[in-house]
Amino acid sequence: MGWFNCFLTNTQKIMRRILLMAVALFAVINSSAQDTTANKSENKVKLNFYGDINPQIYADTRKVLEGREGEMLFYPLPESLDANGNDINAVPQLNMVAITSRLGLRIQTPDMLGAKVSGLVEGDFTGATGSGINMLRLRHAYMDMRWTNSELLVGQYWTPFVVHEVMPGTRPLNMGAPFHPYSRVVQARYTQYFGAIEAVGVAAFQLDNKSSGPLGGSTEYIRNSCVPDLTAMIRYNSGRLFFGAGYNFLLLKPRTSLVGFDGLTYTTNTTFASHSTTVFAKYEFDNWSLRMQAIAAENMDAHLLLGGYAESPLQYYTTTYPGGSFSTNIHYNYKPFGCYTMWVDFGKSTGKWRPGIFMGYGETFGLDDSVDGWNIYGRGKDIHYLWRVQPRIGYYLSKNIQFFGEIEYTVAEYIEPYRHNVGNMRFILSAVYAF
């Protein structure tokens, strides 16, 4: 009877899931029905479902540092020579996925506290981690309250250094990374409008994109610090011309305990700060758009840029007090490193044919002989610089159906294990069916 009990248990689980799905489907249908029949009421909730299907096929001339089955490309891997002097990483690759297909829901509710109130929930199928590929992953989930001269957004949305108005026109998942940041964070964002001038303040926390450290990628380092990821921005928006600047402050506590020289465990409260700045601009004229951004980023690997930090070997010092008493402090020292990046995107913004080109350059800083022998956490410690040229062409058959072709050529100069350049050419074809 054991097999029968197992069968009965599994059947009950399946029936519960089907019941939950049925209840959820009924709630959606019921909400839609209420929306369509409540036109007489000004207090209705408006729901707008949207999404797209986005298959992409891509080919590389060599292996690359990547994620999500290769669709998230960063830069080519360095030379790795076998016993005969052949490069192990010089292997062409080909793949096709549709994981960036999206589903979303826009929500509008009655005004509250004098503000226009709306919300958005959006997901795709890239998974929260590489092992979750093809699983639904939360992209955005926020509520927005807009007054005449101010706005409050609370929830998950683009990190502030991803300026939505100044994003590259590229189609692949990397969206210009690691030259352009790519990260979503849970945040509280307040914007004050002074005519064409906008002042923005953001307090954010990590989730899908995490800082590196002794535990690997983890949100624990920022949670331990008890200080949000803080950003302040000033922006000018006149319609055709949009530009601004921003500053980011990140405080991490990589460890809460350590093992001393005596083999015993001690608490530690060492934190360290990282500082990053950006400037950005967009100018639209006729049917064309020019966008650009420059970033000086410390320890922003959680934003998919080059950077991280170095952790010293275990340190200690003794403090002597009057009267002969003393105390010994055991700790680690930390030093952030990062990158200077800049990118430019020029493209046609209207019409059936929409050509464009993305160009980016990045260079690391902050790692020198003073951190020899230290632990290095982050991305790009063995890279001197990167650059990329990425021309594209889009054909908009209609509002719902588009086709795209891009060539992405990325070059990296490595300084370890020896100085050398490698380049990768990626060819991408994609289609979008939007609804």
Please describe what this structure looks like:
By secondary structure, the protein is mostly beta strands. Helix content is 10%, strand content 53%. The protein is built from two helices and 26 strands. The protein has helices spanning 2-37, 220-225, and strands at residues 46-53, 56-60, 64-67, 72-76, 93-97, 102-112, 115-124, 137-146, 150-158, 184-194, 197-205, 229-237, 241-252, 257-259, 265-267, 272-285, 288-298, 307-311, 315-320, 326-331, 334-348, 353-365, 375-379, 383-396, 401-414, 420-434. The protein has a 16-stranded antiparallel barrel. The chain has a two-stranded antiparallel sheet with strand order 3-4. Strands 14-15 form a two-stranded antiparallel ribbon. The relative contact order is 0.12.
What fraction of the residues are assigned to beta strands by DSSP? Answer: over 45%
- Uncertain segments are 1-30, 32-41
Helical coverage, percent range: under 10%
- Main sheet: strand order: 1-6-7-8-9-10-11-12-13-16-17-21-22-24-25-26
Please report the number of helical segments: 2
Question: What is the succession of H and E elements?
Answer: HEEEEEEEEEEEHEEEEEEEEEEEEEEE
Biggest sheet record: 16 strands, antiparallel, barrel
Global morphology: globular
Question: Radius of gyration, Cα only, in angstroms?
Answer: 25 Å
Backbone structural class? mainly beta
Number of strands: 26
What do the pLDDT scores average to?
Answer: 90
Termini, distance in Å?
50 Å
